[in-house]
Q: What sequence folds into this?
């Protein structure tokens, strides 16, 4: 049987994928408190926002301030989402450590959400790479392939198209590529197959898995991806997020449940789970009008849980 | 990488493990409607109740009536839980197809819940086997090893003790053995390891995995167990059940979410998921004062879901 990676990074995307999907607009000082507490709990990669026009996503209008704050925390890898060259220029200017450029493998979803075809996104990534290099910037470029297991508009998405897009992103100069199950259509057998192929193509440039728990399979999907050697996963505290096409449905994989699963598997994440649960309580108060998710906050850690597993990876 | 079993049975235990854990006492006619609808949706193994004294579990006092009804459905494997020889005699008398005898691998939990040591339960299984054979009965005996990943009283439970109990049950004459994570302490790496060893000992007599979603890991655990070749899982509609030590926490693996995961993996269960979701709506009305679980009922099936996968296994 497959072995598992000894260390796994949980990239916190609650401040971006989480907050952009809910109504509550969290004030900047609370987001800063969230970042500070997540850092104190051992999280070392955080996607703090998106460089998109504030009129489109007022929830994320303070992204530049958050990048500036997050950059003050030693050893924190600060990510932002950028939809295009204009956003990338802001990411480069603010010295974000990584910018994620989303691509929808679903042609229909791509046109509806990004107003570009997948190939136009690939061409934009080439322009972003040129701009990054011209600026002498160190900001990493991650091509994130969404709707990789199908989408609510187009329905099925072929694996071959996902892998073609991935190769296109790499050829265009992406430093990293990732795969996202944007709408929670994927199950663990499909994940194991697609992630295995993706790793075979991209090797260590295959960076991250992003799963939504829309149909309860996020953690099973992480487990399947772990077996292919993938060692980085997006997740959101309290599983916030969700899908506009499935109101009330579960959101992203929950950071705290994922941290528990990994710790239970003997995989080091550097996360102090009790501290993360305290942060969850705080965020739950801030987002008291929103539906939150996850299971661990209700049950607590098992009596058998070894608190020594809250190792200080990346500390 | 491991292959998966082509067919998997979801044994519905909502009428036993689910109903015994909640306050609402469901009238017999509704339980019969549940069994009838589950059968119509393709479920072919149902644990309908427990032969325990009605004063202990008034929710399950009508078990004999339910066995009698369930036995009228062609091809349905009718299970009951029996805590001791007295219960087993009732199961034999009512011609249940299978009786599950619970054993707690946690010595402390065993004394607290069953008032017997694990070895005393093994001795009781030997008496049950003798009684079954003396009666010329065909009722199968399943030894179900609970708290196999630890428990809330004792804490850690050694794998070696779980496997020793399993061998003891087989030696005492159990036809089948199963493993249960009674309190949701297990994660997928531990499941893969323990189930792999259990299968190596018991072979095809290893019958069933039983997971609680207390910490959100039930489906990841099923996936890990599938990789060891186990092809039968307990689950409850709407994930009812739960743990008295974690009020409000998630219950058993949800039958409908599990059915979706397996269908998505191309594994046949014989279950018509849309019909099962209709039954869930009905049960949710009956149990309107209870906390229900699961994700699929909120999100619905993906647009890409092949309804032809609702094959008629065992029909």
A:
């Amino acid at each position: 049987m497959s072995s598992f990676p000894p260390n796994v990074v949980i990239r916190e995307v609650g401040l971006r994928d989480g907050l952009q999907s809910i109504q509550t607009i969290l004030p900047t000082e609370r987001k800063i408190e969230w970042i500070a507490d997540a850092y104190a709990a051992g999280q070392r990669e955080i996607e703090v926002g998106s460089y998109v026009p504030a009129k489109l996503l007022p929830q994320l209008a303070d992204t530049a301030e958050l990048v500036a704050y997050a950059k003050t925390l030693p050893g924190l890898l600060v990510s932002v989402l950028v939809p295009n060259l204009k956003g990338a220029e802001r990411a480069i200017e603010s010295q974000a450590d990584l910018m994620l450029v989303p691509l929808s493998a679903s042609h229909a979803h791509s046109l509806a959400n990004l107003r570009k075809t997948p190939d136009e996104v690939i061409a934009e990534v080439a322009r972003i790479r040129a701009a990054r290099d011209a600026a002498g910037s160190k900001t990493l470029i991650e091509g994130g392939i969404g709707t990789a297991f199908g989408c609510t508009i187009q329905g099925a998405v072929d694996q071959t198209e996902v892998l073609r897009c991935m190769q296109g992103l790499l050829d265009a100069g992406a430093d990293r590529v990732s795969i996202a199950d944007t709408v929670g259509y994927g199950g663990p057998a499909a994940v194991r197959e697609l992630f295995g192929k993706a790793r075979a193509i991209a090797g260590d440039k295959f960076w991250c898995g992003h799963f939504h728990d829309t149909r309860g399979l996020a953690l099973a999907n992480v487990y399947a991806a772990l077996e292919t050697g993938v060692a980085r996963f997006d997740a959101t505290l309290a599983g916030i997020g969700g899908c506009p096409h499935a109101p009330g449905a579960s959101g992203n994989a929950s950071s705290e449940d994922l941290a528990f699963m990994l710790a239970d598997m003997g995989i080091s994440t550097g996360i102090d789970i009790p501290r993360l649960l305290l942060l969850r309580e705080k965020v739950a108060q801030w987002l008291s009008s929103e539906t939150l998710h996850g299971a661990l906050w209700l049950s607590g850690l098992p009596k058998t849980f070894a608190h020594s597993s809250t190792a200080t990876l990346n500390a």
